[in-house]
Every structure is written in C-alpha cells, then in structure tokens.
Write a structure and sequence with these properties.
single chain; alpha/beta; two-stranded antiparallel ribbon; 7 helices
Length: 359
C-alpha cells in the first residue's frame, strides 16, 4: 500500500486523535505500507516532522494562509534531512486527513526547485473519497483488538524508563528532553493482547505512556537504569500482577496490584500504593515505602530480603512499630499481624543494615 493511502486508512479506522500518538501512528502506518522502502522512508520522515511541528495544531488552529507561511518558514529554518519534495510528500496526507474543511489540501501548484523557492502552497481542490473495502474489515478489527492490549512486557537497557498512564486510548513512546530518533526502540503487539517493548539505548531516557485502565500483568526486565512506574497525576497505576527484575538502578512504584515481585542486584527501591502480596529481593539496596495492604485475597504477604541495606517501610493500619529498641538495630522480623480482619504475614531481614516497620 502506498504511504498516502496508508495514512488515510489509519485515520479512517482510528480517528484523527491517533495522530497525536506519534509513535503508535508511525508504526501502524509502517505496517500498512509493508515492504515499500520509499513509503517507509516517508512514514519515518512524517514521524520526525509531526513530532517536531505538531501538524494537528497548525492545521486546525490557523487559516490556510497562516499554515502555509508557518510551514514554509519551518522548512527553511530547520534541517529535516530531506528535499523539499520529500518534505511535502510526507506531510500532504496528514494535512488532508486533518483538514477541518472538505477539500483543504497542501501541495504545490507547480514543481518547485528547493534551491529557488521553499514555499508550500495550500489551496482547495476536490478530495477523492477513499472507500474501505469489505475485505479490509478483518484486518481493521484485528488491529483494533491488538491495540486493546492488557499485558505489557518490557526489556530495557537505558538510562531511565518511565511508565505512566494517560487518558489516551493508545500508547506512545517518546525520548525525554529531545525530539531525537527512536532507533533504539522496537515494539510489537503479540498474541494474547501483549505489548512487547524493547529499548536498547545506554544514554537515553524514555517515557512509555499507556492508557489508564486495569492491566492483567506487567513483566519488566531492566539491565541498567532507573525505573519509574505510576498512574497519571500521582494516581496509582492499576495492574493485577507485576514482576520486575532490575539489575542496576533505582526502582520507584506507585501502583495498585494484587501481586508485586521485585528482584535484582543494586539500586534502591521505593514503593507506594496498595498491595495484596509484595515481595522484594535485592542484593545491595535500601528499601523505602508508604504502603497499604488491600485486595480481594484472603490474606496478605510482605517479604523483603536485602543483603546490604536497610528497610524503612510505613504500613497503613499496622498495629505496632517494629524496629529499633534502645540502641539495638533490628535486622529481622518473622511473624504476622492482623490488618482489617486479614492476616499479614511478614518475612523481613537484612544482613548489613536495619529494619523499621512503622504504623
């Protein structure tokens, strides 16, 4: 499928809002164009341009003349690594799809030599209608189903990874503090509605924005770098089951989950939110927490094993304080307490450090 047709098909299927999810939009268009090298290059170029310029805002919030002047200025002032003709071909289909008035398109009225003129002309012409064939319905429904993923698997080797929820219905991956490329990022939506993300960029910091809903499972394996997981606006991210292995780097969570397991080598752990079962096993780390135990499980479990490091956790409704007694550092606690008519089983210890469970 040609690039122009692929863009129109994606917007017909998902609506104009998907253009705001740059990474998701780019990948779906790339899937539609298949093995066409030229169409894939246009998709990649449009991703770079749209992420930098926000074409949706330019087209919807300006007159035809204002949009024309602004786009011309942008091409002159910034190096997009392409000719004017490639710049034009990359953005024409997006402007066509976004146009608030029927027939508003962006194109040149004549062939333009980029060395002579870099003006982008917007005018009105009759837009052709693109009908979605009946044979496309199956693939449309399959992709819609794929985007409703409820499981996430991440393999990351980067400086920092932030996973946060948003009000959007689709997901987006971006690089912090830059509009740089995402060459170190790969993803696919596999079987059983699982989003698989692979990030390999030692110097990069990335944000994975996902829809705000209840997920079935998270499985995260981070070789190096910090990991931050939270809901939007400091709310809890909701997931039935979370498993994290972080070999080197800080882990910070604000979640609501029935089961959470955190393992790895070095790096502090900071836990906030609501848990049914919480298990932390690290070699060299300090553990900090402000948590509560609340789930539909018949009982609760808190396991925290740290070889070198201290454990300071506040547990809501915990009936007593466990920790320092005069000048003696407590290094272990095995026992249980009743919380809201459910039994909380605790298995907490450290070799070099101290523990303090607070009510």
């Amino acid at each position: 499928m040609e690039y122009r047709d692929a863009v129109q098909k994606v917007i017909n299927t998902y609506g104009k809002d998907i253009i705001d999810n740059h990474f998701c939009f780019y990948n779906i268009v790339s899937d539609y164009v298949g093995s066409s090298i030229y169409s894939k290059s246009l998709a990649s170029l449009s991703f770079k341009i749209n992420k930098t310029l926000d074409l949706r805002s330019i087209v919807l919030n300006n007159s035809v003349g204002e949009a024309n002047d602004y786009l011309s200025k942008c091409y002159r002032e910034k190096d997009y690594g392409c000719t004017f003709e490639e710049f034009k071909k990359a953005i024409v289909p997006l402007v066509v799809a976004l146009s608030p008035n029927e027939g508003l398109i962006i194109e040149s009225s004549k062939e333009i030599d980029p060395n002579d003129s870099k003006s982008v002309t917007i005018h009105r012409s009759k837009r052709r209608n693109i009908d979605i064939k009946e044979t496309d319905n199956a693939s449309k429904e399959a992709i819609k189903q794929d985007l409703r993923f409820n499981k996430i698997m991440v393999t990351a080797n980067c400086q920092k990874l932030t996973i946060i929820t948003s009000k959007s219905k689709t997901f987006d991956i971006s690089k912090e503090n830059t509009d740089g490329n995402l060459n170190g990022v790969d993803y696919q939506i596999g079987k059983h509605n699982t989003l698989n993300v692979n990030i390999s960029d030692l110097e990069g910091s990335y944000i994975l924005s996902i829809p705000d809903k209840q997920y079935i499972s998270f499985d995260i394996n981070q070789t190096q770098g910090d990991l931050f997981i939270s809901g939007n606006n400091l709310d809890e991210l909701k997931c039935k089951k979370i498993k994290i292995n972080s070999e080197s780097g800080e882990v910070a969570l604000n979640v609501k989950t029935d089961s959470c397991k955190i393992s790895g080598n070095n790096g502090d752990v900071k836990v906030n939110g609501s848990y049914g079962d919480l298990e932390i096993k690290k070699y060299r780390a300090n553990v900090y927490g402000n948590i509560r135990f609340a789930s539909n499980e018949p009982s609760y479990n808190f396991t925290c094993n740290v070889t070198y490091g201290s454990i300071y956790v506040y547990i809501k409704d915990f009936p007593s304080r466990i920790g320092r007694v005069l000048f003696i550092k407590r290094k272990s606690y095995f026992g249980g307490k009743m919380i809201s008519n459910k039994y909380l089983s605790c298995y907490v210890w450290t070799i070099e450090g101290e523990i303090e469970l607070m009510k």
